[in-house]
Amino acid sequence: MAVLGHLELAKYPFLADAGGYLRECGFTLEQLADDQDLKPIRDQAFARVAAAVDEGKVYRPSIETGSQLPREVFSFLLAVVLLKMSGARHLAKKFAMQEARGAEMLLERDLGRARTASQVLLATEIIRDLSGMGIQKQEEHFVVPVPEYLRRAVTFHAREWKLINRRVESGLVYLTPHETVRLIRQELVNYIVSRIEGAAMPPPVPGLQGFAGQLSAMEARLRPKTVVSSGEFAPCVKHAAKTMADGDNLSHAGRFLLATFLLARGHSISDIVPYFEKAPDYKKSVTLYQLEHLAGKSGKGTAYRCQSCQKLKTLGLCHEIPECAGIVNPLQFGVGR
Amino acid sequence: MRPPDASFIRRCMKRYYFERFDMIELPSDMPKREFGFRRADSGMVRHLQLHDSADLRVLLLQAVPLEVYVSNARYLLPSQPIPEKVWEDAHLIFDIDAKDLDLECRPSHTVASCERCGHGTSGPCERCGHRGIRKTSVACPSCMRAAGDQADRLLDILADDLGVREGVRVYFSGNEGFHVHVHDEQLARLGAAERVELADYVAFRGMLPERLGVARDGASSLPRPSEGGWRGRFAREVLGSKAGRSRTAREISSGGYDAFARRVEGMTSGLGVRIDPGVTMDVHRIFRMPGTVNGKSGMAKVPCADLKRFDPYVSAVVFSDEPVHIRASCPVSFRMMKRRFGPYANEYVRVPAYAAAYMVCKGLAHVVE
Ligand SMILES: [Zn+2]
Ligand SMILES: [Zn+2]
Questions:
Q1: How many domains does chain A have?
Q2: Do the Cβ atoms of B194 and A151 come within 8 Å?
Q3: Whether residue A318 sits in one domain with residue A257
Q4: Is B205 close to A151, i.e. CB distance below 8 A?
Q5: What CA–CA distance (Å, rounded) separates B276 from B202?
């Protein structure tokens, strides 16, 4: 294992031995959870996880000031504790991917900047710890043994990753820092996931329950709600979509039906927006806001469910056909038959 | 095979396996290998487990198979069907066959004969009326030299590019090609997808023009002959002299990226090693066992330490020189043990057992009872 200083741990906190690190810094989990002075760390830990569900956002640790370094490690370790407490597995996966993306950038930079023998050793050992890939620096390049390269590169489909399109000499494949890091991307994610999965279940810490509860709510929104097993729309939804497509005015309840149905079937907001474009009163920002609200991504965070057939009948939105027999919610239409 | 022919071959084999069992190279970890064999009169038997040389000796002397095969893979349970064998690893193998090189000399030593009676014919048999013909290639030193050159190039690429210098064994296949076995622990663990990449690499298949310094935006910086790997090989063999270099540079600037890409693609067979990629990628195959006889020729699969000096028609000849009476229809002459045989136009002749076996195995002669 590489021997890591505070700076490296702040950059790659998943490499830290959690218990040992806390002890060494003279802290306990309870302190992190309850100490009023440490509230910023709790907020940061929560923000770290919350950032993971924000597509395209990458968490960047602040590593420029030395005094802030332990805070980066604490907030990561606390984030793991929170994820563990909330049992949020989808969220944990997203969190791992997001943390991996951040680490990827730092690792690429570290490899690129490594000049002295000890810098090179540190960077290559970090890669070895994460992936088991034996890597060395040669001239301006990093080299890995052919079998180690192949095992990873065969999962990529771009032709440039074919062995024939690589510089290969004496059993070694030459890589740039960017390529090196790209090669171990999946292992980096897996490593972080395994750190979360392998973490001991923390004792119930009252100060953290609130955060954990919020994470559970986030998880509920992430979990795929209905299996996207059929592209078939229920007749009521078809009717609503057609009314919209024709540019006719659809009632608020009809729009609600269309949006909640599509969201539940796993369509993304950007895929749903076009259904509303022909509406006489269409405004993109308003539609986006409303869809986000329905999806539970804003406001108080509860996703709206698609209404039952019964309710739709009373609203005059039901357009029952024989195939509807036996279903109580439009979402069940055409599924599992 | 006709019964007298089969029993002649069987006698030769039995004697060889009895007297020269030491020629057979036993695989490491023998109980972990899958063995297979084929007899003259029956189909293939696979998924056999042999524990030691005694097991093998019994198989060879009792069943006297025409062909004997062993897996390059090691399995936990070699005698189970493939999905249940539990694959551990398999040393890497490259197969080079003269037939795939398709040299100009090939038609001149390819013999067509009636597949039923063996009569030399290129259309429906004049003797028995049968319509099926079979084509066999008769010993050709040029073809073997060309195959050997391919093996030589493969060895260079293995050593220079892939860093494999130890544990590489070259075998003459017993008929018209070479098997290159690479005993490397790391490479042995690779799966089929990784082996496809290795096969493509040695075959110079799938190279992007960018790798040779030619980009879509028109920029080009061609490789230098002193470089390693395929860039260096390309520079030495294609760009060659200064003149060749500037000619190629001109071609690129006039023809552009796509023309260059097509040109590189067209170079695969000339520049790359002509291996059979299907053999390299298959991690569950069984291969002719080194030291055993190839039923298509009556010669053995033997190691070949020096490709330049190797003469398969001497080194792989393992049957005796006792005279055998045959009726031969071999319109092409060939050399074995530095002796010339044929051409024979449906003639009764006495030839040494090894030459008789060679022709009988190729369907060009029958033993006279
Ligand atoms: Zn015939
Ligand atoms: Zn030839």
A1: 2
A2: yes
A3: yes
A4: no
A5: 11
Number of A:B CB contacts under 8 A? 71
β-sheet bridge partners, residue A121: none
Tokens at B7, concatenated: 């029993």
Asked whether residue A176 is assigned to any structural domain, the reply reads: no
In this structure, are residues A164 and B230 in contact, taking their beta carbons and an 8 Å threshold?
yes
Chain A nearest CA to B163, separation (Å)? 4
Residue pLDDT, tens place only, A96-144: 988 898 899 999 999 998 888 888 988 899 899 989 999 999 888 999 9
Same domain, A99 and A239: no
CA distance readout (Å), A266 to A195, A215, A293, B362, B364: 29, 21, 16, 65, 70
Residue A180 lies in a domain: no
Ligand nearest to the CA of B139: 2
What ipTM is given for this predicted complex?
0.91
Cα B100 to middle of ligand 2, angstroms: 11
Report DSSP state, residue A331: G
pLDDT of B195 higher than 90:
yes
Report the residue of A133, A141, A143, A150 to disrupt the B interface, i.e. the one with the largest count of B CBs within 10 Å. A150
Does some domain include residue A65? yes
Contact B211 A165 (CB under 8 A): yes
Range of the domain at A54: 6-129+202-215
A228 pLDDT higher than 60: no
What's the predicted TM-score (pTM) here?
A: 0.79
Q: What does the mean pLDDT of chain A come to? A: 83
Q: Which tokens hold the place of B267?
A: 């170079």
- The catalytic residues of B are 95, 97, 276
CA distance B15 to B23: 13
Same domain, A252 and A208: no
Residues A313 and A210 in one domain: no
Ligand approaching nearest to the C-alpha of B99: 2
Q: Which ligand is nearest to the CA of B118?
A: 1
Instruction: Decide if A149 is inside a domain.
Output: no
Domain shared by A125 and A244, yes or no: no
> What value does the mean pLDDT take over residues B220-236?
89
CA distance B270 to chain A (A): 16
β-partners of residue B367 are: B326
Going from the N-terminus, what domains does chain B have, and what CATH number goes with each? 3-101+140-201+275-319 (3.90.920.10), 112-128+320-369 (3.40.5), 204-271 (no CATH)
Tell me if chain B has a CB within 8 Å of the CB of A141. no
Contact list in B for residue A172 (CB cut-off 8 A) is 163
Q: What is the pLDDT of residue B280?
A: 95
Q: What confidence tens digit (pLDDT) does each residue in A10-54 have?
A: 888 888 887 787 788 888 877 878 888 888 888 888 888 888 877
